[in-house]
């Protein structure tokens, strides 16, 4: 049974009333986002173990009492927050739900935030977290990448950077409502979904770019537009998006470009949903179902890899 329409409309009204960052300080935005996350229903029995990833704070997240955890695998998750916000605490619930669905511990971490730390700080920290996992003994083919919103973009940019450096690829990636083009911002859904998206807007995404890049002589870095880059040689990718979000076109066009480049991609468009609805899985049936689908994707990729290794 899907979430009742009256409940969806009530959630959307609340999100619309609280989405506008105009006139708010960065600290106020961060505090409000953190407080909103604390108000959501929490997954019971979350287990979070603190870890230092170089100079960055991180957490290994799972569910207490999980018996099917694949110790040799890891799910490295890059949080969203428009490059200006996001903490391990905020994402603890989502990470635990993903961990339970996948049977893998999830590693979250706090990359440096804008505007104090502009491009390429977050990109560098994401690469560092991947290399840190390698240093802990994890094999590239046993590491999954994931993220939401700009975190999904960071996951995609990390894949491209690793490929361009000639590094071995992670097993797969999960992208929730990715910004696939932060340079041109020309997706059709910026217009067609402007009135249905309760959280995102073209203006808001322009602000994301401004906060992360600031004044950039010579134009924006090409890496911020994965959609326009060479996408060959990437591992299997799951993309999830809502049919009411302004980033819908970014998800759809990215899937087309990945397939054209020869990559295996699964695109899921969820009806009546908005950007990163999975974050509200404690309230939304669709959020729970989407996370179950993430688990099925990860387990399928893992099983295929294990079968190949045994041959």
TrEMBL record:
Matching InterPro entries: AB_hydrolase_3, AB_hydrolase_fold, GDXG_lipolytic_enzyme
Alpha/beta hydrolase fold-3 domain: residues covered: 76-278
Top-level lineage group: Bacteria
Pfam family, one: Abhydrolase_3
EC number: 3.1.1.83
Enzyme class of the recorded protein, top EC level: hydrolase
Keywords noted in UniProt: Hydrolase
Keyword Hydrolase: yes
GO MF terms held by the record: hydrolase activity
Family: Belongs to the 'GDXG' lipolytic enzyme family.
The name this protein goes by in its record: Monoterpene epsilon-lactone hydrolase
Originating species: Paenibacillus auburnensis
């Amino acid at each position: 049974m899907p979430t009742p329409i009256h409940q969806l409309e009530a959630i959307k009204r609340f999100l619309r009333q609280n989405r506008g960052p105009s006139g708010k300080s960065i600290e106020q935005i961060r505090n409000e986002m953190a407080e909103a996350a604390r108000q959501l229903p929490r997954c019971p029995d979350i287990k979070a173990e603190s870890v230092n990833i170089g100079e960055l704070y991180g957490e290994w997240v799972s569910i207490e009492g999980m018996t099917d955890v694949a110790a040799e695998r890891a799910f490295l998750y890059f949080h969203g927050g428009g490059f200006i916000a996001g903490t391990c605490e905020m994402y603890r619930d989502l990470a635990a739900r993903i961990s339970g669905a996948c049977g893998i511990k999830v590693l979250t971490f706090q990359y440096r935030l804008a505007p104090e730390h502009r491009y390429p700080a977050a990109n560098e920290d994401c690469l560092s977290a991947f290399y840190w996992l390698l240093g802990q003994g994890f094999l590239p083919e046993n590491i999954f990448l994931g993220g939401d919103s700009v975190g999904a973009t960071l996951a995609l940019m990390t894949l491209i950077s690793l490929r361009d450096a000639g590094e071995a690829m992670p097993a797969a990636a999960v992208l929730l409502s990715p910004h696939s083009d932060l340079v041109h911002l020309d997706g059709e859904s910026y217009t067609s979904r402007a009135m249905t998206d309760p959280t995102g807007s073209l203006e808001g995404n322009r602000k994301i770019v401004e906060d992360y890049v600031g004044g950039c002589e010579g134009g924006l870095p090409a890496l911020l537009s994965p959609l326009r880059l060479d996408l060959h040689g990437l591992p299997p990718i799951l993309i999830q998006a809502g049919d009411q979000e302004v980033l819908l076109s970014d998800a759809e066009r990215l899937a087309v470009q990945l397939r054209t480049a020869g990559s295996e991609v699964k695109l899921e468009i969820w009806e009546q949903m908005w950007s990163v609805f999975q974050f509200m899985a404690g309230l939304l049936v669709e959020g729970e179902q989407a996370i179950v689908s993430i688990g099925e994707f990860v387990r399928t990729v893992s099983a295929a890899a294990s079968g190949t290794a045994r041959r």
